[in-house]
């Protein structure tokens, strides 16, 4: 028995036979050629064949994991037309009089090394893409047929690394887990594994000469371990663990994939709240229709310096890519009050909840805001992003925000950096915003009601003060009437309105919210299926 630890990119536990995928089935030999132009012509037809294969993969991925994840195969098609890459290949053929396979292999290695040496994690991860397209070209030049993954029995895939095209070609129902020696959490393979709900481990120090197809293995995504040839005792413990996990899942699983629709046909969106990129797994596991609140301030907590534009961009992009075209509402920085960060240098305040926090900091210190907006606008290219501004009390604040967004837009355009202006909405979490929600609705794309703060500010009760728990009543008629008012004003202006505060997951109120016409409830991932159950068992019309 051999237990090896790695980094879990998706949780779950499985036991089954191993299939080891080796890449050295396509050895490249260097041979001398006479006619360089004939070799270059061979490359042209191999490129055509590769593009056809990639287009087929794109279409397959599009149906299975959505446009954002499928996009990588479009990118691969474009890479096959990259002039720098092709010039390097042609140059080797012409100057060294070598065969096309060799020229592609050398160029692929050189370019992959160049990307791997870059500081930027995203660019580093592209080294795998370069290798992927080069190997495809070589296979097509050499006339190799691709591996027939579809005919494999359900197995744990063990490999040095997995390329996106290998991952997506596999028949998901036949794959129990992935475990690779290399790979990054940023890689498309990790993203696809999460999308596919398949336990996956990367960075497992396995000796692929020792691991043989047909061996039994346990991949434990909770512990981050791969156990090869487990003992009888460990097998029994694992079987019990798998059963326990199954039972937990099965209870609610029946509701996965079902619509959030009432008995009389009214639908509502049920999204999830997250605080970090690592929470996306739970969003997918619980079948949320999107992310209704990503509390971006968590990226700023637990560190000594501001997260850079690039760090934020990577985090937002990863969320958007993994959500594969589903809506992702990212709330801008909501620091202050209970969320204190030393490096912001905020002064101690008498009433921090009524103090310098959230959008107020962003408007007073626009450089902090600008950095986040640049990251968001850049990330918007990679999925279905909505930006949401917290703690709004006036229309003037929205005007000021839009002015800064316009400036950031101009800046990015001048720098020729790709970006998109996403849907922009506000949190309605102050009584002031509720009272002018008719005017605000004209200015924004959506409302998301933050009942945690709305309750605090409406009932004048500090949400942090345990002694006031008995008075903190979010079912108060004032709160429910406010919610109704906000929803009605949003609808009058043709906008959508959701709830992302804790009240959205209050199962006693699901019926009332649906009847009020709330368009979206964004709740903790573990509550998604429970709220769905409520919706499916109620009628919207009394
Ligand atoms: C809210 O106030 O309801 C909300 C969702 O925001 P937070 O809890 O992060 O203040
Ligand atoms: Mg709030």
Q: What is the count of β-strands?
A: 16
Beta-strand content: 5-15%
What CATH architecture of the largest domain do you see?
Alpha-Beta Barrel
- Sheet with most strands: strand arrangement: 1-8-7-3-4-5-6-2
Number of helices: 19
Which homologous superfamily in CATH is the superfamily of the largest domain? Phosphoenolpyruvate-binding domains
The class by helix and strand makeup works out as: alpha/beta
The Rg value, from CA coordinates, equals 26 Å
Output mean pLDDT.
88
End-to-end CA span? 62 Å
Which segments are poorly predicted (pLDDT under 50) over 5 or more consecutive residues?
none
- Under the CATH scheme, which class of the largest domain? Alpha Beta
Task: Write up this protein.
The protein has an eight-stranded mixed sheet. The model has no long low-confidence stretch (mean pLDDT 88). The chain folds into three domains: 2-21 and 148-251, Phosphohistidine domain (Glucose Oxidase, domain 1), CATH 3.50.30.10; 36-141, PtsI, HPr-binding domain (Enzyme I, Chain A, domain 2), CATH 1.10.274; 267-536, Alpha-Beta Barrel (TIM Barrel). The protein is 46% helix and 15% strand. With 542 residues, it is of the alpha/beta class. The protein has helices spanning 36-65, 67-79, 83-96, 100-116, 121-142, 164-169, 188-195, 232-253, 280-285, 309-323, 359-364, 366-379, 395-414, 431-435, 437-443, 451-459, 477-492, 510-516, 528-537; strands spanning 2-5, 7-10, 13-21, 155-159, 175-180, 200-202, 216-220, 225-228, 269-274, 291-295, 327-331, 384-389, 423-428, 446-449, 496-499, 520-523. The structure holds phosphoenolpyruvate and magnesium ion. Residues 390, 429, 450, 452-453 line the site of magnesium ion.
């Amino acid at each position: 028995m051999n237990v090896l630890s790695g980094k879990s990119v998706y949780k779950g536990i499985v036991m089954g036979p191993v299939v080891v995928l080796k890449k050295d089935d396509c050895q490249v030999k260097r041979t001398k050629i006479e006619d360089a132009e004939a070799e270059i012509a061979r490359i042209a037809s191999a490129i055509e064949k590769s593009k056809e294969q990639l287009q087929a993969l794109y279409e397959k991925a599009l149906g299975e994991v959505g446009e954002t994840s499928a996009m990588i195969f479009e990118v691969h098609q474009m890479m096959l037309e990259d002039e720098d890459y092709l010039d390097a290949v042609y140059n080797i053929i012409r100057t060294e009089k070598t065969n096309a396979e060799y020229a592609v292999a050398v160029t692929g290695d050189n370019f992959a090394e160049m990307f791997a040496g870059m500081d930027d994690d995203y660019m580093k991860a592209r080294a795998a893409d370069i290798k992927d397209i080069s190997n495809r070209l070589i296979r097509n030049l050499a006339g190799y047929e691709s591996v027939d993954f579809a005919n494999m029995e359900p197995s744990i895939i063990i490999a040095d690394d997995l390329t996106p095209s290998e991952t997506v070609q596999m028949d998901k129902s036949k794959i129990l887990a992935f475990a690779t020696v290399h790979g990054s959490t940023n890689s498309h393979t990790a993203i696809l594994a999460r999308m596919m709900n398949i336990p996956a481990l990367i960075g497992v120090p396995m000796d692929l000469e020792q691991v043989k197809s047909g061996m039994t293995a346990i991949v434990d995504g909770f512990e981050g371990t791969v156990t090869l040839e487990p003992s009888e005792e460990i097998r029994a413990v694992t079987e019990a663990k798998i059963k326990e996990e199954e039972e937990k899942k099965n209870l609610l699983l029946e509701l996965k994939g079902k619509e959030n629709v009432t008995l009389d046909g009214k639908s509502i969106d049920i999204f999830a709240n997250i605080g970090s990129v690592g929470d996306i797994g739970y969003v997918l596991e619980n079948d949320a229709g999107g992310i209704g609140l990503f509390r971006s301030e968590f990226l700023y907590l637990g560190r000594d310096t501001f997260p850079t534009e690039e760090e934020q961009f990577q985090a937002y992009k990863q969320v958007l890519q993994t959500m594969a075209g589903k809506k992702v509402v990212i709330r801008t920085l909501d620091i202050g009050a209970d969320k204190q960060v030393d490096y912001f240098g905020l002064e101690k305040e008498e009433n921090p909840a009524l103090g310098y926090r959230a959008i107020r900091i962003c408007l007073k210190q626009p450089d902090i805001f600008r950095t986040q907006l640049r990251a968001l606008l850049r990330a918007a290219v990679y999925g279905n992003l909505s930006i949401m501004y917290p703690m709004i009390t006036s229309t003037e604040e929205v005007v000021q925000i839009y002015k800064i967004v316009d400036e950031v837009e101009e800046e990015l355009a001048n720098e020729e950096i790709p970006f998109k202006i996403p849907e922009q909405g506000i949190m309605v979490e102050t009584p002031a915003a509720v009272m002018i929600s008719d005017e605000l609705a004209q200015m924004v794309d959506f409302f998301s009601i933050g009942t945690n703060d709305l309750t605090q500010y409406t009932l004048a009760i500090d949400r942090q003060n345990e002694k006031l728990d008995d008075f903190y009543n979010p079912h108060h008629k004032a709160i429910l009437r406010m919610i109704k008012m906000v929803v009605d004003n949003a609808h009058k202006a043709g906008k959508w309105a959701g709830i992302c505060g804790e009240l959205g997951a209050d199962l006693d109120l699901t019926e009332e919210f649906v009847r009020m016409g709330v368009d979206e409830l964004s709740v903790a991932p573990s509550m998604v299926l429970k709220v769905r159950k409520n919706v499916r068992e109620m009628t919207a019309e009394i």
